[in-house]
Specification:
Number of strands: 9
Order of helices and strands: EHEEHEEHEEHEEH
Shape: elongated
Radius of gyration: 19 Å
Structural class: alpha+beta
Length: 172
């Protein structure tokens, strides 16, 4: 089963490496990982997508909680959450295909971010399922290159944010 894990870590040198090393050291596969600053400068949020049985994911969460830089770990898969991903997709242009590709871009509420005589680069954001659907529709046109960000996700509501602010205030 796929799990989305949100990990709040202190924004210090080596924090990302310690989390990634924990995964590889324990033999856990990471399908997607993203990291960025939060509203609190000294705290970063990692969103990790991994697969495994609930028992294995429980081990992952326990291991993550033991890391020195970890502030909080939440398995979002057990809650209601919003998620987004960004994809840049370069598609080849063939005679008569430009309008069709533009229409596909509009359907997925994407943007054309680069154009050359032989290709279009589309930017599409949304939940991973939407990105997968866009890729499948664009595949027959010839995807020349693609880059996908890792998923970012937040729990719906304010519960996690309030706890984060409390933790941050406690550290001062």
């Amino acid at each position: 089963m796929k799990h989305t894990i949100s990990v709040l870590v202190e924004n210090r040198f080596g924090a990302f490496d310690r989390v990634a090393t924990m995964f590889s050291g324990k033999g856990f596969n990471i399908k997607s990982i993203s990291i960025g600053e939060t509203e609190i400068e000294e705290v970063s949020r990692m969103t990790i997508v991994t697969e495994g049985e609930d028992k294995i994911i429980d081990q992952v969460v326990k291991q993550l909680n033991r890391l020195i830089d970890t502030i909080k770990v939440v398995d979002l898969s057990e809650t209601n959450y919003v998620s987004r991903e960004l994809a840049l997709i370069r598609v080849g242009i063939h005679k008569g295909s430009m309008e069709e590709i533009k229409n596909i871009c509009d359907i997925f509420r994407g943007n054309i971010v680069d154009i050359t005589p032989k290709s279009l680069t589309l930017e599409i954001t949304g939940p991973p399922d939407k990105i997968d659907a866009a890729v499948n529709v664009l595949m027959p046109y010839g995807i020349k290159e693609m880059a996908r960000s890792g998923m970012v996700a937040l729990k719906r509501g304010e519960q996690v944010i309030q706890k984060l602010k409390t933790i941050s205030e406690d550290k001062k």
